[in-house]
């Protein structure tokens, strides 16, 4: 079956693939032994590839990777090799809060909706409960509401929020109701309105567009409800599209199209008059989610093997391209596609991946798994995610770790590397830019530097000491010389005075005395 899908992907669309290559100038980095150096960290880079210059490469700075040895993060971890390794973009899950919910094998929770700082959760016995959400704690209200809707073993009520009329619809196989989104269920003013939802064998999903509600009801087609005279009323049932009966498993849409996942026909792309534009053939599809023209579909093979499929839709020429398959990794239950990542929901473990990147551009990817047994629903709340399982509520934080290079060493070394950073063109998943750059990194030993610095400091200290004593000696010599000069000048002045006195007295004085 996978081979047939691959053939279909070739037949369906032949996209124009383009990888622009740009060579940047060589650069040099310095680092310190026993410390990690982070290089080429960029949130918009979807992949980074690293080669180390091999011994046979005599051209140190050329940009071809033929004479370089490819470095892989996982291999280096297993071998305990240091130096430089590439780290691919990762999505790290952090659990902030966790709260157990009362349930058993027959009574369990089915859906979740976030209203500002309140989470409404509902069980298959139509018990409605409210949880106040904060980053520090979950607070479960004492009051709960039991909805007057008959339940059975297959009951699976779901929420649908209409932010225009401030109503939250609760839809199930046995009908439905609506509640106000601005009143807590514990307040006296809280009220419940009965709504005209039809009884069906099963209800899979519901979608709201311009005050019109579309409900996927399996082989009973799609029920359509709209507002007439201010009240929600049943409008019609869509049992067939393009003369083929529906088995609607999931439904969603956007401003131009409504998307219906049929169990046998695949993904149907229609206008809002249910005129089909084109179809993506997928057998036994169960759930899908999308962001813009990137779609993820959960399906089952003829051998009962779950798989997930990433599809690019082209609404200009009504074509599609099967981009990537996820199979034999886990059992898939549902999928959620957000702007920056996709969460593949399993039964025990769940995987976070990048999306909207042409698969042949991807050489390496990170395995970002997290465990949350029996998780049914995910809803974004501020910068966090609230997850609901059949018996638990959790507050999760998803942090993105950018692709980068980590360099470390326990000794001195100097090596040259070739790095390739990949960036996606925002207009098309088939166009990317690859930036090549050769860099040299030099690790220096701070201990050696410290010994050299200590020696230099000692020499400098000795020179300062020597200069200090030379200055003192010079000052002492200067003082002695100055004192001698002063004494000589005093003696000279005394002799000069004596000579002058002898001249004034004359030679006759000695004779008269005789």
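-> sequence recovered:
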């Amino acid at each position: 079956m996978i081979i047939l899908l691959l053939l279909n992907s070739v037949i369906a669309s032949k996209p124009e693939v383009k990888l622009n290559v740009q060579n940047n100038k060589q650069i040099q980095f310095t680092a310190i032994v026993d410390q990690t150096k982070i290089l080429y960290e960029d949130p918009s880079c979807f992949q980074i590839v690293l080669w180390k210059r091999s011994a046979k490469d005599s051209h140190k700075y050329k940009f071809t990777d033929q004479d370089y040895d490819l470095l892989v993060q996982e291999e280096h971890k297993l071998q305990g090799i240091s130096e430089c390794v590439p780290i691919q973009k990762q999505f790290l899950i952090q659990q902030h809060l966790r709260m157990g919910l009362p349930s058993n094998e027959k009574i369990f929770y089915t859906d979740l909706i976030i209203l500002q700082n309140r989470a409404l959760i509902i069980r298959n016995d139509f018990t409605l409960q409210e949880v106040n959400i904060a980053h520090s704690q979950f607070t479960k209200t004492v009051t709960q509401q039991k909805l007057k809707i008959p339940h059975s073993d297959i009951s699976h009520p779901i929420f649908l929020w209409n932010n225009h009329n401030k109503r939250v619809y609760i839809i199930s196989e046995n009908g439905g109701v609506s509640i106000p989104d601005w009143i807590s269920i514990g307040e006296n003013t809280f009220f419940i309105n009965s709504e005209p939802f039809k009884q069906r064998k099963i209800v899979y999903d519901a979608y709201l567009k311009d005050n019109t509600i579309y409900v996927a009801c399996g082989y009973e087609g799609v029920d359509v409800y709209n507002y007439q005279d201010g009240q929600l009323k049943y409008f019609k049932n869509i049992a067939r599209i393009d003369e083929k009966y529906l088995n609607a498993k999931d439904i969603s849409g956007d401003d131009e199209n409504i998307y219906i996942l049929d169990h046998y026909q695949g993904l149907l792309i229609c206008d809002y008059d249910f005129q089909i534009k084109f179809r993506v053939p997928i057998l036994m599809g169960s759930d899908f989610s999308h962001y813009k023209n990137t779609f993820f579909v959960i399906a089952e093979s003829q051998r009962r093997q779950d798989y997930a499929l990433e599809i690019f839709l082209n609404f200009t020429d009504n074509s599609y391209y099967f981009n990537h398959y996820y199979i034999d990794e886990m059992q898939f239950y549902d999928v959620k596609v957000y702007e920056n990542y996709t969460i593949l929901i399993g039964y025990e473990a769940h995987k976070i991946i990048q999306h909207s990147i042409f698969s042949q551009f991807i050489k390496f990817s990170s395995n970002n798994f997290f465990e949350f047994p029996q998780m049914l629903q995910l809803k974004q709340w501020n910068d966090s995610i609230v997850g609901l399982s059949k018996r638990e509520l959790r507050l999760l934080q998803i942090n993105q770790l950018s692709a980068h290079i980590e360099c470390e060493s326990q000794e001195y070394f100097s090596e040259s590397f070739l790095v390739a950073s990949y960036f996606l063109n925002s207009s098309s998943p088939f166009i990317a830019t690859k930036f090549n750059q050769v860099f040299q990194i030099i690790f220096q030993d701070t201990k050696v530097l410290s010994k050299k610095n200590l020696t230099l400091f000692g020499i400098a200290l000795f020179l300062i000491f020597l200069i200090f004593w030379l200055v003192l000696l010079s000052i002492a010599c200067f003082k002695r010389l100055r004192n001698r000069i002063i004494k000589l000048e005093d003696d000279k002045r005394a002799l000069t005075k004596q000579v002058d006195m002898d001249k004034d007295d004359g030679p006759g004085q000695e004779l008269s005395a005789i």
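The chain has four helices and 40 strands.
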